[in-house]
Amino acid sequence: MTFIFVLLLILACVFLGLIVLVQNPKGGGLAGNVGGFSNQLMGVKQTTDVLEKGTWVLALVVALLCLFSAIFVPKAGTAASRVPEKVSAPASQQPSTPANSAPLPGK
User: Fold this and answer.
1) 90, exposed or middle or buried, with CB in 10 Å at 0-12, 13-18, 19+?
2) Which end of the chain is more exposed for a tag (fewer CB within 10 A), N or C?
3) Residues 3-55 pLDDT 10s
4) Where are the beta strands (DSSP E) in 1-107?
C-alpha cells in the first residue's frame, strides 16, 4: 500500500512540475489582467486555461494523496507493523568483569 501511494505521489509531482515549467512566465495572473495584457491571440487563451486547470487538478491530487497516505499507510510504531521480538532467558549468570581481562600487575 505504501509503494502505491509513493508511486502515485511521485508521478503527480513530476507531471505538476512539467505543467508548471511549460507555462508562460511573463504577464500571467492578476498583474497581466490589470495591466490590460491579453494573450487571446490564435487560441493561446485556451492553452493557458488547460494548463492552469491541470495545475490545480494535479495540486489537488498531490494534496489528497498526502492526506490519504497519512490515514491509510501504517505507522512505524504501531503493533501491526512491528515484528515481535524473541525473548530468551539467559543461560547462566555472566561475571561483571570481562573474561579476557587479566588482573593488573601491582594491585
Assistant:
1) exposed
2) C
3) 888 999 999 999 999 998 888 776 555 444 444 445 555 455 677 788 889 99
4) none
